Amino acid sequence: KTFSGRIRFENLSKVELGALLFALALPNDCCHKLGMGKPLGLGSVKITSTLYLSDIENRYKDLEAEWKTAIEPSNKQGKTIDDFKKEFQSYVLNELGEKTITDLWKLDRMKELERMLDFDNKPLDDKTRYMTLPPQSAENEFKHRKVLPKPTKVK
After folding, report:
1. Under DSSP, is residue 15 helix (H, G, I), strand (E, B) or coil?
2. Which residues are paired to 127 by β-bridges?
């Protein structure tokens, strides 16, 4: 099924707009996870986005002006969606003090997130389940939770 929606924003900096676009555009084979059933792959959705930027001057001349042309591949400032995402990545990496990495998805923690969002390479069904609670079992697994392995270590 296909659903469509809009996210409207005002007065975002280039970094903030980059953060929004970065959050929407996951790497290939990755899906956002909505609702319940995440360990079973339920609630996995693929989001594709198109960015429209409003031109204030044209907005007041023509009510439909801001919705006529998508920003991809470039807008009048010469910026693409990837440029905004790079602004965000540069900001975050600079704040983290990273000097050698230029792609956020290369950070260890982001690799783990990417693995959890990877829809095509999910763990085998017998490797995923919900924790048990009484009265279904005598043991309450929430009481003595084990430290889970990193997602990249689960096959």
Report:
1. helix
2. none
Contact 41, 119 (CB under 8 A): yes
What single-letter DSSP state applies at residue 32? E
* Residue from 30, 21, 31 nearest 81 by CA: 21
Q: How far apart are CA 6 and CA 83, in angstroms?
A: 21
CA distance 5 to 135: 42
**What is the number of other CB atoms lying within 10 angstroms of the CB of residue 57?**
8
Distance CA 61, CA 54 (A): 12
Percent of the chain with pLDDT over 70: 81
Phi, psi of 125 (to 5 degrees): -55, -35
pLDDT tens readout for residues 83-97: 999 999 999 999 999
pLDDT in tens, 98-146: 999 999 999 999 999 999 888 888 777 777 777 777 766 667 777 777 7
Whether the bond into 135 is cis, omega within 30 of 0: yes
